[in-house]
Amino acid sequence: MIDKKSLMTDTHSSMVFKLTNGFLLVASMVLSVLTFIAIQDILLALVAPLILTSEDATVQNKYTIVTIRNVWVLFGGTLLLGYLVTGIEYHAKRLDQERVRRILLYTLLVEIILIGLSVII
């Protein structure tokens, strides 16, 4: 015989597990957009002093910085879009797996570290 009480507990635990993983997925997607901006800030903070401290601090050097930013927006934006689409597709199908939680927690950790690094730099 199946114990109805244990069945309800398993269903409830499974629902809580899916909701927790769903929340982690949404948080990861939101932080990925902020991480995209943080990486752009890190990139510009590292490259701008090298370009602007040259002897020819001209308009051409400033355009170089803008070009670097535009290339990052194009390349990074493509990566971000790919991550969002594949991440949602992959994780949404597997919200009830523990492996998904570990992947999302590692992803959140890396995103938070990159955002923190952006604030420090």
In short:
With 121 residues, this protein is mainly alpha-helical. It is built from three helices and no strands. The model has no long low-confidence stretch (mean pLDDT 88).
Write a concise keyword list for the protein shown above.
121 residues; mainly alpha; 3 helices; 88% helix; elongated
What is the averaged pLDDT score?
88
User: Strand percentage, roughly?
Assistant: under 5%
Strand/helix succession: HHH
Query: What can be said about the biggest beta sheet?
Result: none
* Cα separation of the termini: 62 Å
Outline type: elongated
Helix tally equals 3
Helix content: over 70%
Task: Output the structural class.
Answer: mainly alpha
Let me know the number of strands. Answer: 0
Poorly predicted runs of 5 or more residues: none
Rg estimate, integer Å: 21 Å
Verbal overview:
This protein has helices at 4-52, 59-93, 98-120. The chain has a domain at 37-120. The chain contains three helices and no strands. The chain is elongated. The longest helix is centred in the N-terminal third of the chain and has 49 residues, at 4-52. The mean pLDDT is 88. The protein is mainly α and 121 residues long. It is 88% helix and 0% strand. Helix 1 (4-52) packs antiparallel against helix 2 (59-93) and helix 1 (4-52) packs parallel to helix 3.
